[in-house]
Specification:
six-stranded mixed beta sheet; 30 helices; about 15% strand
Length: about 725
Amino acid sequence: MVDTLLEKAKTYLPENRLGVIDHAYRFAAEAHNGQVRRSGEPFIEHPLQTALFLADLRLDSNALAAALLHDVVEDCDDVAIEDIEHEFGKEIAGLVDGVTKLTKTEALADESPNAYLQKPQDELAQAASIRKMLISMASDVRVVLIKLADRLHNMRTLDALSANRRRAIAQETLEIYAPLAHRLGIWEIKWRLEDLAFQHLNNGAYKEISSLLNSKRQEREEYIESVRSLLQAELDKAGIVAEVTGRPKHIYSIHRKTETYRRRNLGVDDIYDLFALRVMVNTEQDCYLALGVVHANWRPLPGQFDDYIANPKDNLYKSLHTTVLCIDAHPVEVQIRTPEMHRVAEYGVAAHWLYKEGRTSDIEFEEKMTWLRQILDWQRDVNGAEEFVESFKTDIFQNQVYVYTPKGDLKELPAGATPLDFAFRIHTDVGHRCIGAKVNGKLVALTYRLQNGDTVEIMTSKTVRGPSLDWLNANLGYLNTNSARAKVRQWFNRQERQINIQRGKDIFRRQLRRLNMAMADEDLAKMLNFASTDEFLVALGGGEISVQQVVDRITNHEIAPDDDFVLVESMPASSPASGVEVLGVGDLLTRMAHCCTPIHGDSIIGYITRSRGVTVHRRNCPNILAERETERLIPVGWGKTQPLYPVRVRMEARDRVGLLRDVTSLVSEEGVNIASCLSEEDGDVSIISLTVYVNGIGQLNRLFSKMEGVRGVTGVSRTRA
């Protein structure tokens, strides 16, 4: 099976480099011996197909060897990355390690505790593995070329998986891997991944477009052939050696175009550029001569000309693009390029891969790949794998605008980027010192949306004033790249750590007082998996975690029982429908204490009475704390509940007409029943005492937050009496 791969490699690699490929195949075949993919084929077929595709891209022998070995560490228990390094050397081991997914333990090791409150662990682990690959790619782009070839073969064999798994992998392919192939300029992989992903995500639309293409094929081909032959004749007449061919669009590209046309109330029949034209000429000068012939024969559409020869894309792409009105005034896209430009357009950075034996990488390639190196810098500013991947998708995969520095250097930014985004892209300090901007020599607002061709000059202060909090307000539009936002957040985190710690303490203690609960901040920090109390307080004070998330975690936390833990059960609380059931032994009678009215989520303890069974109190109840007969205290725990708990609430507010109405209406809107309500006045202060039935601390906290928002309210708290 490896013979086909060796034959392909032999066409461009020296004979003495074929041995490492053959050795890697045999090593992988032995490691995967007995393993079968879900599709039923031997597992070794997958790494072999991955390597075969990379051989089509003419990658070097080490990359082909790494492709053959890319799954042995992940899927073979007895092979470690150290074994690969010992057998094949550091370079191949580094490529394999870059492609290998992290274990869940490794992936979650660096995640912030807040991440666990927001995302399932599997999603966090997947994001961490993607981040690892992207960071490795910045050091050696072959890592991502192997991963793209790996994903392409996986997409071709996706039918063996469950429907949900197929959709998840297809969605990830469309959001991460296809755009990544596009940014690396590998059109051949990009369109294949997009079509395969689209087929699994929207099979109905995929089949519909395929059917339409077949039914209209003859009509479109006749039209494009007439245009092609006419342009070929005009180029021959002008003495330009050229080959004009039709360029088919792939299915997902057509789907996106039909969506655009549908918004303009146009149908598929109105799309005449499903087949565009490609003109291949011998030299760069001939590209511009051919462009003159095209524009001399057909009128170009305004705003539809792009010169990527004078201004190549970061992925090395070069070509001339123009759209003209051809026969019967139908728009046709024309691309003009040389054979070398065409190879780069199809295979992107792989076409410029110069790590082959005995050669050094060229300066142009290294300069054009600087955007990959920037990933390492952004990594330092972004906390957590999820945020890093989202930053990558926003800052790298969105449509791009090309702008210039005052010195004429071309910079690429996501569409919608502002002068502030540009400043942070130049350097973090430039962003922090930014006080204004000029675009094309004119002062503009920092919220100005940059356009293609703009020349941007950043005005800075001599001293570091630091960013404004307004820059983080998405509604104000100052920053539109995640990397710039991360740098601003990092500045505030660094400057205000002590302030955030104190603010976190105030928030935490105010919340405990409001809910009349007792818990040490270090206990909650451990419960939320923070490394230290300060880290927890910084996160709370800086808004990384909310009070509601903390309250929810307290409510859902299960306290481990002591060794002598006894479960008891209770009669229903005094609520008409509280449904409280405390698990226990036998038919031991229990009831809720009226002095502290515990609710689900509170830490509780039982008190054995002389005539009324066990009374359930909160652990911080003054009566319990003052109890001298400690032998009458018994551990209890919450069982299944239909949570409706009576809670006494005290609210203070400036007296005004309609205050009580506003409060009771708000409580009713929250779906909370009011058992009793007492209002009294103390000068111009109104004190309202309520007894309400809530389903737990979470709902009580939400109710307090809403009550505090009522006009004139100065304080809301939970009381014992």
